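Dear colleagues,

As part of the handover before I leave the project, I'm documenting each prediction I ran so the next person doesn't have to rerun anything. This entry is a single chain, and its sequence is reproduced below.
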Amino acid sequence: MKIELHLLQNFAPSNLNRDDTGAPKDCEFGGHRRARISSQCQKRAVRQAFELDKLVDADNQGARTKRLALKIAEVLTEKRGLDRELALTLAMGALEGVGLGRNKKGSDDDLWKTEYLLFVPRRIVDEIADILHEHRALLTPGVEAPAAEPTAKSAKKESKKDAKKAAQSAYPKEIKDAVEALLETARRTVDVGLFGRMIADKPEWNVDAACQVAQAISTNRVQMDFDFFTAVDDFKPKDNAGSDMMGTVQFNASCFYRYAVLDVDALRENLGGDDEALLRRAVSAFVKGFVSAIPTGKQNGMAAHNFPSYALAVVREGGQSVSLTNAFLKPARPEGHHKDLVDDSITKLEGYAERLGDVLEGATLLTWADRDLQASEGTPTRVKRLGEFYNAVTARAVGASA
């Protein structure tokens, strides 16, 4: 069973997802320049929506971090009363003991980070801390800050490999097995099960994502604008005119087409395969989270908190997923005084979906919109209230999948 979500979301002036120069991301599509929001940006916004809207309980939320050892040490220090250095040593020792490398650059807290980001359940911070506290007598403190590495690349690789092997072989097996078991269960965390994870050193912990998220593009041809800003020093003498800081910020106002597909059966497998209640909550959270997710880029200065104007859900048994992006090869545009940009985008999207009727045959199509839409033979089922849309999509997908 698959759920495909197609959204139209019109944003006020904003810079939601920046490139390396600080400008809003964009791309060319259909021979026209379009505004763009990366899939990674959208997935982070979905995960933030899980927490903000309390869609996923804390035990089933994940965290992407290099600071796992620091968080474990924080628990050991604040809840168990251990000395901070000892707590850090125990925490990093456990991660190195299961084969995860540590950061070798920087100083102070940077030396207690893992060498790359880990995607783990938030609950394991306390659980690993409990294991370390319980078995602290078996663990020998004394892990020192790492020395500078050799400059030759081959020597670096060899030293890293040797260090990891040495740490693993020296670590008590009982504790190592317990920590590994906790890290392996990450696949049963909702956002890890949805978005997957890859750990190069521990491929057996990898999780194939049950969800795919497309790069969002504007249905309209993008027009980049510049905001010239100035700032005045509040303590400046009154006889001293002028600003004390000035600059420019790029922005645009665009209607985005957003698309994602969720493989419900793959998510069930990632979550353990036997908890239908958790699966239903996860599917419901994803549908609600993807619809309500708004990136946080430059929001303090622009507050573009614009909810989607239109949502189309396609629910069906397997088959090839179908994006409707090509509905906008020719950019959407307002038409006179009676049809705005969103209206034309909806017309193009539904018209294209109707032309793909044979491809979508057998699927359940449901729509919600913030405006009245005409219903006729061949158009998707209209759902008036957003809550009804969420419930109908979840019930159709999980009920049929079960």
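The longest strand covers residues 2-10. The two ends are 9 Å apart (CA to CA).

All the best with the project,
I.
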